Amino acid sequence: MSVLRLGVLVSGRGSNLQAIINEIEAGTLKAEIAVVISNKHGVPALDRAERHGLNAVFLDPKAVADTPDPRQTYDQILLETLQRHQVQLVVLAGYMKMITSILIDSYELRIMNIHPSLLPSFPGLHAQRQALHHGVKVAGCTVHFVTEGMDTGPIILQQAVPVEEGDTEEDLSERILKVEHDLFPRAIRLFAEGRLRVTGRTVRLSDA
Ligand code: GAR
Question: Global pTM?
């Protein structure tokens, strides 16, 4: 059986990318990373990819800024890069650029995102700050399939994380991040094992 080929999109630190690499290298996630693509130059995530001998690509959004629809043009190039590397599942690991229908239509229910809140609460930027400002007692993270719309696709896995008295944004982000590093590889493993069944908004886990 061939191993699931991942394309990981990143924009920054890359700790979720690292968690995925670690599980693959440990043999606990049967997948391979075909390519890591960043929309930001020189970010730690690209260094991590290179250190582990992975294909690491920076695609510069400025290169398409003069086209009639820069976001679509960018995603067309992104799509071609993913297809050239025969990517089967696209993983958004801290990728902070909205993706367009070009990518979503070609990889329907084959794009996963991790978000640092219990969706549908607190979509968008600074989810942990939003949660603290709202005064919630329980925060968490969500892995979901990507559809059009911000952080709205069918939910695959979620895990709650307590908010402690006096938490700063950094405290809460760090507590959530630890859980993300377990949750994201778990969701990818379920996909790799063919155990995700999607009906409308609902994702069911079938037996192994
Ligand atoms: C993670 O907390 C991830 O959930 C979040 O960005 C961080 C990336 O960290 N993603 C979003 O907010 C997406 N809306 P990392 O680069 O160390 O993996």
Answer: 0.97
